[in-house]
Amino acid sequence: MKIVETARKWVIDRMGLGRLAESLLYRRVAKSPWYQGDGTALLLLVGVQVVTGAFMTLIYSTSPDRAFQSVEYITRIQPMGWFIRGLHYWSAGITMVMLAVHLFRQIMLAGYKSPREGTWFVGLGLMVGLVVMSFTGYVLRWDERAVYAIRVALNMFYRVPWIGEELVLLVQGGPSLSSHTLSRFYSVHVVFTPMLLVALVGYHLYLVVLYGTTSMLERQGPVHSAEHQKELYGEQKESEQLGEPFFPKTMADTGIMALAVFLVPLAFTLVIGPRELGTQANLTSVAFPAEEWWYAWYSGLIALFPGWLAPIFFVAFPAGILLLLVLLPLLDRGPYRGYKHRPVFATAALLAFASILFLSDLRARSPWTAWPSNDPPPVPHGIKLTAEVEKGRQLFVKYGCNSCHAVAGFGRKVGPDLAGHDRSLSADEIQGFILRPPAHSSMPSYEGRMSKEDLERVTSFVHVTQALFHAK
Q1: Is 385 left (phi over 0), alpha (psi -120 to 50) or beta?
Q2: pLDDT digits (tens, 9 = 90+) for 444-468
């Protein structure tokens, strides 16, 4: 095996692998807790998306007429296509979760303080790139959710001062949504943003190798300058008790967490499968489907604002948050880095993270949204409905009435509670509202869409519910 050994040494020498391994792998670093593997987990998830995305590009079509069908083919016909697309989808969602975890951990441990300001700024660039990737990715499905997402994005760009219209034309590829729109989103998702991410990931890793991560000695007391930080970090990494070799110790510890995180999208893929496609995109109609779950918190936040302020806040909030994150190294000028010594910043980070969870839950339960439901309104205990009224109760679901209207407090509250009027409406009044809703109402007219028999049955059900409510 002398020939093999000689060849190995030749390759290592000629390719410069020895110096590379010495600089990256065989170096000492400060010991870090297991949860600092969130960065490694992010890197693994992005890698999974690159691999699965590359496989999908072999079949995906950028033609608006065939894009939706190509995704359907990947999901339902292509062998293992469901697995590839599902792993891509769930990895993208968990990436957004881990991105938030990584961001808030860096704020908690002041990962933006000297000499790591550059690491922080490059990391923010990576954050923006990953958000762009997550958005442009689900647009490529070209279903009604994709078109709605594009319209939301265009509305945001349009409200940018001075250059809004130009941004819309640039993103849209013309005066209206067309094949150029899909091609541009595909190029951004598959070419431009990945190129940017590769450069930023490489530079970010270089800065992490150069300056390390926030060490235990840095967290315990004040750090007065960049030189002081380097001295403390050097002292810890050379210590037998506080330092360790990056390979294999640190790589193994962070790798275990990364693998554990990867098992989450893998399990979701195997148990749930890929995201169900919506209705094929129709550029001439307007649909209002739900956003992807990792954007739910933002939708819940916007819903808390009055209608006149929401469009302004919709644009100003992300810009303001990004500006705040960029300015953090200037705002947090104290010598301490551990969260115990920085209660204001640590508390703000925890509250922000908790707010995201709360708003996501609020959006999932949002009473202001007409979520489709197959559950008819409940019948009070001890009450037996006639056959005609029961048919009306079932038709109440068939025509989507329960998606907006509650009955005696049960159900969605988008429209008025049908049992909550001050008086019982007559059958003519109920039918008039169903067939010809008020002009200011967002309720669609059912004139020509509901047969006379179905109209009478729904009316009888509504009339009975009002009678039961007012009899209490």
Answers
A1: beta
A2: 778 887 888 888 888 888 888 776 6
For 348-371, give the DSSP string: HHHHHHHHHHHHHHHHHH-TTS--
- Please answer whether residues 419 and 408 qualify as being in contact, where contact means their C-beta atoms are separated by less than 8 angstroms: yes
At residue 152, φ and ψ (nearest 5 deg) are -65, -45
For domain 387-471, the question of CATH label 1.10.760.10 is answered with yes
**What pLDDT digit, counting tens, does each position of 394-420 carry?**
888 888 787 777 776 677 777 777 766
Global pTM value = 0.83
Question: Is domain 31-365 annotated with CATH 3.90.190.20?
Answer: no
Residue 244 has pLDDT above 60, yes or no: yes
- 280 pairs with which residues across the strands? 143
CB 423 within 8 A of CB 470: yes
144, 281 in Cβ contact below 8 A? yes
- Determine the Cα–Cα distance for residues 157 and 165; give it in Å rounded to an integer: 8
Kindly list the domain boundaries of the chain, sorted by start residue.
1-26, 31-365, 387-471
Asked if residues 458 and 418 have their Cβ atoms less than 8 Å apart, the reply is no
Q: How far is CA 223 from CA 63, 157, 209, 229, 232, in A?
A: 56, 42, 20, 6, 9
What tens digit of pLDDT does each residue of 299-330 get?
A: 889 888 887 888 889 889 999 999 999 999 99
Give 86-106 pLDDT, tens digit per residue: 999 999 999 999 999 999 999
- Report how far Cα 197 is from the mean position of its chain's Cα atoms: 18
Structure tokens at 263: 């098992």
**Spatial contact of 289 and 144, defined as CB atoms under 8 Å apart:** yes
Give per-residue burial for 296-329: e unless 16+ CB within 10 Å, then b: bbbbbbbeeeeeeeeeeebbeeeeeeeeebeebb
Q: What is the pLDDT of residues 359-400, one digit of tens each?
A: 999 888 776 666 666 778 777 666 778 888 888 888 888 887
Which of 78, 90, 111, 7 lies closest to 274, judged by CA? 90
Please identify which residue in the block is written with the tokens 């968990």: 94
